[in-house]
Amino acid sequence: MNIDLPRRNLKTKNFVVKEGTLYISNRFFFKPSVQQLTYSIKGRRKCFYCGLDFPISQMTLDHVYPKIIGGPYIPNNLVPCCQMCNGMKADMTAGQYFQFKRISKTENKVNFVKDLNHTREKLRKDGKSELPKNWIEQIPTKEIRFHTIKIKERAWNKKQEIFLACNGHIPQPIVVDQELKLIDGFHWLIIARQYNLETVPVIRLENVKIINKRSFEILLLNGQ
């Protein structure tokens, strides 16, 4: 999939947007770069959910598809949101939250959330995703590239290990650039390799490219 980018070319110390592609020199710069890009595309004063204007200090970015179900940190999946709506929406998708807001009785709201959580847990165990199907593809685990580091201790928590051992899959996609370089999902990738999973669900960002520091410096200097 392609992430939403400004139509014009941009240069900053952390990223470059050129001819429809986002270049970054380090995967750890990805999230702050996306934050800046999202605000530049969607603004940062009007809440997506309640439609009201707020001071910048009272605004944040919210995942349309929440992080808990693998919603990626990309402009396509982020909207400006006031702190109140952000807290009330919690781990619902945007569509689920709009449904929730239309419910008047407190008891019905509680039951709605309870049913939602039950359905979500079943989907996770069955290896099904709430994300749009065209966002995800299955990629051989060994083809995903990441900087090798010496891991002194287990790189995942016990809950992750138990989930994979019981269900035989990881519950959310790993995010990579156009060349399958890792952007997000390091812990799940490590455990998938440790458990010899042949393939993993992946969101491949076709118009994002991680380049080395020298190439990025050249790009900043002359745009080539």
Report on the architecture of this protein:
The chain is α+β, with helices and mostly antiparallel strands and 224 residues long. The protein has one domain (10-222): DNA Binding (I), subunit A, CATH 1.10.30. Helix content is 35%, strand content 17%. It has helices at residues 30-42, 83-89, 94-102, 106-126, 158-167, 186-194, 213-222, and strands at 10-11, 15-18, 21-24, 59-63, 78-82, 137-140, 174-176, 182-184, 199-204, 208-210. Strands 1-2-3-10 form a 4-stranded mixed β-sheet, covered by helices on one side. Strands 6-9-7-8 form a 4-stranded mixed β-sheet, covered by helices on one side. A two-stranded antiparallel ribbon has the order 4-5. The longest helix is centred in the middle third of the chain and has 21 residues, at 106-126. The radius of gyration is 19 Å and the shape is flat. The two termini are 24 Å apart.
Give a brief description:
By secondary structure, this protein is α+β, with helices and mostly antiparallel strands. The chain has helices at residues 30-42, 83-89, 94-102, 106-126, 158-167, 186-194, 213-222, and strands at residues 10-11, 15-18, 21-24, 59-63, 78-82, 137-140, 174-176, 182-184, 199-204, 208-210. The strands form 3 sheets. The protein has a 4-stranded mixed sheet with strand order 1-2-3-10, with helices on one face. A 4-stranded mixed sheet has the order 6-9-7-8, with helices on one face.
